[in-house]
Amino acid sequence: METLLNVGQGFGVALMPINLLYCFIGVFIGTLVGVLPGIGPISAMSLLLPITLSGTPESGIIMMAGIYYGSMYGGSTTSILVNIPGEAASVVTCIDGHQMAKQGRAGPALG
Description:
Blueprint: H1 2-14, H2 17-34, H3 41-47, H4 57-81, H5 91-102, H6 106-110
Helix pairs in contact: 2-4, 3-4, 4-5
């Protein structure tokens, strides 16, 4: 029973409006940085680390998670549209995604 209370408290902290705002900002900035070829999620997180120090520790960790996932998605954007993988995880996306973009189906490829 104590485990369920701790999980509920964790969701309560994670779903606070300020933490959701930090997550949104992290995803937005992470996507902008992830679109740049050659800058992967780890380097995006290390570049944006000083931004996360402005709030509470929970907000900083949530923002770092948002930066990570946003930069992973941003790396797939360049590999689909321009056929340039930003990091090693986007190499396979170049094969199928760019062919779909050349056929006029870039929207479903990005989705």
